Amino acid sequence: VTLAISIRAARHDELDDIDRITVDADQRFTAAGHPELADGETMPRTVAERAVAEGRILVAELDGTPVGWVYLGRIGDEPCIGHLAVAQRHGLRGIGSALVRAAIALSRARGAGSIVLSTQRDVAFNEPFFARHGFVAIAPRDWSPAQHAVAAAQASAGLDVATRAFMRRAL
Ligand SMILES: CC(C)(COP(=O)(O)OP(=O)(O)OC[C@H]1O[C@@H](n2cnc3c(N)ncnc32)[C@H](O)[C@@H]1OP(=O)(O)O)[C@@H](O)C(=O)NCCC(=O)NCCS
Description:
By secondary structure, the protein is an alpha+beta fold. It has helices at 15-26, 28-31, 45-53, 95-109, 127-132, 145-156, and strands at residues 5-9, 57-62, 65-75, 78-86, 114-120, 136-137, 164-170. It has a four-stranded antiparallel sheet with strand order 1-2-3-4. A hairpin with a 2-residue loop joins β2 (57-62) and β3 (65-75). The relative contact order is 0.16. Coenzyme A is lined by residues 25-26, 28, 84-86, 91-97, 117, 119, 124-126, 129, 132. Coenzyme A binds next to α1, β4, α4, β5 and α5.
C-alpha cells in the first residue's frame, strides 16, 4: 500500500491537533500495562510553541491532516526524541518509524553526534521498537548527570524508573 504521507515541520496552528493525537496515541499504554502513561497529559503550550518556532516538532501529514508527530528536545547537551505519537487508527503502518527516521535526520543535519531518548523497557512499541531503529540502552552507571535528573523527575512524577530505559543512537 502506498500512503500519501509527508513529514514536515509543524505549524503553530496545529498544536490542538498535536494534543489530540497525543491523548489518543497514549491510550495504547493502558493495554500495555502502563495506565499511568495514558493520563491525558500533553506538552505544555509554551514548550510546544518554542519548539515549533525552532523547527523541532515534525508532523506526519496524511491527506492534509496531521496524524502523528515527533518532538526534538534536549537532555543535557544531547538532542532527544522527547515525544513521539501516532493516532491509533493510523498505527502499525510505518508512520512512527518514518517520524523516528526524520528526527534522526534532522538531528544529524543540525550537527549532533548522537541522539537519546527515555522510554519503557517493557512495552513492545517502545524499547524493542527503538532498538530496531539503532538505539542502544545506556547502563545506569553510564547515565549523565542530566539523565539522572530526568530519572529523578520521572520518579517524583510517579513513574516506575525500574521499567524505564535511556537509549542512545550514534548519528
Ligand atoms: C510508538 C508509536 C509512535 C509507533 O507508531 P506506529 O506508526 O505504529 O509505528 P510503526 O508502524 O512504524 O511501528 C510500530 C512498531 O511497534 C510494534 N508493536 C508491537 N506491539 C504493538 C502494539 N501493541 N501497538 C503498537 N505497536 C506495536 C509493531 O510491531 C511495529 O514494529 P516494527 O518495527 O516491527 O514495524 C505509537 O505506538 C504511539 O504513538 N505510541 C504511544 C506513544 C509512545 O509510545 N511514544 C514513544 C514513547 S518513548
